[in-house]
Amino acid sequence: PLNQITPENVGKLERVWSFHTGDLPGDRPGAQNKYASENTPLKIGDTLYACTGKNMVVAVNAATGQVKWRFDPGVDDAAIPYTAACRGVSYYVVPSVAATDPCATRIIWGTLDARIVAVDARTGQRCQGFGQNGQVNTAEGMGPTVPGMISEYGVPKKTVSLVPFFALAGTVTGSVLWGWIADVYGRKASILLSAVMFVGTSICGAMPRISSGCWSKAASA
Q1: CATH of the structural domain 1-139, one choice from 2.60.120.10, 1.20.120.80, 2.40.10.480, 2.115.10.20
Q2: 199-210: per-residue pLDDT in tens?
Q3: What angle do CA 202, 206, 211 make, to 5 degrees?
Q4: Cβ–Cβ under 8 Å, residues 130 and 136
Q5: What pLDDT does 144 receive?
Q6: I need a labelling partner for 54 at 20 to 30 A (CA). Which of 7, 21, 84, 167 fits?
Q7: pTM of this prediction?
Q8: Least confident segment among 92-106, 109-123, 125-139, 143-157
């Protein structure tokens, strides 16, 4: 217990075990100098859950450091932005199911390529009832992004387009609560970051928890 550690004895602590994720870029072109260790492990019972720079998740025995399972979501190096990092995972207990049922407890996290993934906390197997094959692609309908997106997504005069909110319903099914794309004027897109958006010559408003769509008005040229 932590209350056994005091200012007087903390200097006598010794390392019990260490763990290496094995998730380093090596000689992969374009991946060097892009990895960061930003993960905060999550301890549930006697298991420690950690994620790596490329969003792999590893479950280890908290007492021994032995690997229980490892899951690799298959994130491509091309999806790495300024750095490859994962800051942690979430643990979820499905209500009203037997503890021994598949995916009764889940590890859920997001990936660098805009997916939400759910696996069985005990086995590391995909939760098939969550989204499609245990994952949800939150980039659906968002269109491509390219380097220099501030320039690409700038809205020039008389060119307005509206990109939707994307809402996810729950941790059990991973179904999309709602999503839509408003009328598009011109080629370039703007990202909707809040409930009300003013873009160029257009105004768009929406409430994050409803699916009635977005009202919008384009000003006269």
Answers
A1: 2.40.10.480
A2: 444 444 444 444
A3: 130
A4: yes
A5: 57
A6: 167
A7: 0.65
A8: 143-157
Beta strands 47-51 and 42-44: pairing type? Answer: antiparallel
Q: How many Å apart are CA 21 and CA 18, to the nearest integer? A: 10
Residue closest to 181 by CA, chosen among 216, 146, 135, 157: 216
- Could you tell me which of 206, 140, 215, 213 has the C-alpha nearest to residue 176? 140
Is 140 strand, coil or helix? coil
Q: Where in the chain is the domain with CATH 2.40.10.480?
A: 1-139
For 168, residues 6+ apart whose C-beta sits below 8 A from its C-beta are 116, 136, 138, 174, 175, 176, 177
Quick one: tokens of 184? Answer: 């598009």
What does the block give as tokens for 216? 């919008």
User: What is each CA distance from 3 to 7, 9, 112, in whole angstroms?
Assistant: 11, 11, 38
The stretches of the chain forming alpha helices (DSSP H) are: 149-152
State the DSSP code for 161.
B
Taking each continuous run of H as one helix and of E as one strand, the counts in the chain are 1, 13
Asked if 159 contacts 185 with a C-beta cutoff of 8 angstroms, the reply is yes
Contact 155, 208 (CB under 8 A): no
